[in-house]
Structures are given as C-alpha cells and as structure tokens.
TrEMBL record:
Family: Belongs to the ribose 5-phosphate isomerase family.
SUPFAM superfamilies given in the database record: D-ribose-5-phosphate isomerase (RpiA), lid domain, NagB/RpiA/CoA transferase-like
Keywords, in A-Z order: Isomerase
Pathway participation: Carbohydrate degradation; pentose phosphate pathway; D-ribose 5-phosphate from D-ribulose 5-phosphate (non-oxidative stage): step 1/1
A biological process from GO: pentose-phosphate shunt, non-oxidative branch
HAMAP family in UniProt: Rib_5P_isom_A (MF_00170)
Gene from which the chain derives: rpiA
Annotated organism of origin: Methylocystis echinoides
GO molecular function terms listed in the Swiss-Prot or TrEMBL record: ribose-5-phosphate isomerase activity
Lineage: Bacteria, Pseudomonadati, Pseudomonadota, Alphaproteobacteria, Hyphomicrobiales
The protein's name in its UniProt record: Ribose-5-phosphate isomerase A
Record: active site: 109 (proton acceptor)
Enzymatic class: isomerase
C-alpha cells in the first residue's frame, strides 16, 4: 500500500508541476490515464478558484471527469488549434519519445497532441527507460479484416528483427476491447525497440492499422516526479522539435 501511495503521490507532483505552466485563457488538451486524471483534478480546483480555460478531452472517460469538475470543454472541430496538451505516458526515453495507449485512447491522444503547440508529459520516474519497448506497444486496428491486419503486422516486425507476442486486448474474457472510435487494440510485446522511427513508419503503411502508440516528435517537455522532486527534460517554452 505504501508503494502504491508513493507512486500516486509522485504522479500528482508531476501533474502539479505541469499545472504551474497553465495560464488564463489557454486551450488545453486533456489526457487520459491515471496520471492525467490527477492533472484534471488539480485543474478543476484551479477552475473553481477562477482560472478560465477551455479543455479538449482525449477520451470519454476524461470528458466525464472534466465535466464533473466544471471545466469548460470543447472539441477539435470547434477549437482546432490548442496551446498545450498535458498527458501521461506508459514509458519514455531521453529523446522524448513515448509509448502511450495503455488506457486505450492512443488515437485521440495523438490527434489532440498534434493539434497543440506544445505537449507536456507527466510521469513518475518508473516510466523512464533507456530503450522503448519494456511496455507492450499498443496498435489500434480497424475491426474489418483484423486477422489479416495482424498477419501484416507480424511480417513487418519480423523484417525489423523484432520478436515477441501480439495479443488482442480484451475488456472481459472472450470480449475484445473496443476503443472510443470503435476499433480493436493489439498489444505488441516486442521487447527493446531499437529503431522506433522505422517501426512507426512501417506500421503506418499497413492498411488496417489506424494508429500506434509510438509518439515521436510530439512531446516538448517531460515532467518526471521521483523521490527527490520533479525534474524536467525538454523545453517548456517551445513547440515540437
């Protein structure tokens, strides 16, 4: 229990540090997941104190949370350009490359991040890795031809020298998990991904792959909470590199 509470406290500390960079009138992308939920909670408290922002949620789960806290919400159709997205990550490396999608919202998270001038990632120190791939890579696929798409993915990753298991995500025994967009997710446990850019490019080329959880060139800064406090890598002022 102590370890869980400690990890939870670190997530909240990272969220608080990122919140300090939110200004009155900002258009914000609101992430999905346990760490992002802390940020939304803290943002709700600031809104109650008079902060005015507009949020675009990356999932129905986040939308419900934000609505309950009184945060003014919009959509990307209504607000197509955002100042800042704040979201968590399943893992990240020193080059600000991420794996996301453990919460099942990777497609909307990537769309919202790409619409933002900046993306801040909030995470505890356990999410930092030397090489991406410790966390299984989620790949979102269309439900039509799912088996065929999976075979294409298997061939592509073999060509890159990646070996591991590909498992369809379930929401219950024998019940496939379905994303907010109506798609399936394959969780790909490849181990170390030495060339994430090459893998990203080849996955995007497969018909049936809607998106994948490699976020490359989107994060501008990562707030990393550990026992000694919060440190930041990247640039909190500029846009994507």
């Amino acid at each position: 229990m102590t370890a869980t509470l400690s990890a939870d406290a670190m997530k909240r500390a990272a969220a608080q540090a990122a919140l300090d960079h939110v200004a009155h009138g900002m258009r914000l992308g609101l992430g999905t997941g346990s760490t992002a939920a802390h940020f939304v909670d803290l943002l709700g408290a600031r809104v109650r104190d008079g902060l005015e922002v507009v949020g675009v949620p990356t999932s129905e789960r986040t939308r419900l949370q934000a609505e309950g806290l009184g945060i003014k919400l919009s959509t990307l159709d209504e607000t197509p350009e955002l100042d800042l997205t704040i979201d968590g990550a399943d893992e990240f490396d020193a080059s600000l490359r991420l794996i996301k999608g453990g919460g099942g919202a990777l497609l909307r998270e990537k769309i919202v991040a790409a619409a933002s001038m900046r993306m801040f990632v909030i995470a505890d120190a356990t999410k930092e890795v030397g090489t991406l791939g410790a966390f299984p890579l989620p790949v979102e696929i269309d439900r039509f031809g799912a088996r065929s798409t999976r075979l294409h993915i298997e061939r592509v990753v073999r060509g890159l020298g990646l070996i591991g298991t590909i498992t369809q995500r379930l929401s219950a025994p024998d019940t496939p998990y379905v994303t907010d967009g109506g798609h399936f997710i394959l969780d790909c446990a490849f181990g170390a991904i030495d060339a994430p850019e090459a893998l990203s490019e080849r996955l995007y080329a497969i018909p049936g792959v809607v998106d994948h959880g490699l976020f490359i060139g989107l994060a501008t800064a990562i707030f990393i909470a550990g026992a000694g406090g919060v440190r930041i890598i990247g640039d909190v002022t500029g846009g994507p590199a």
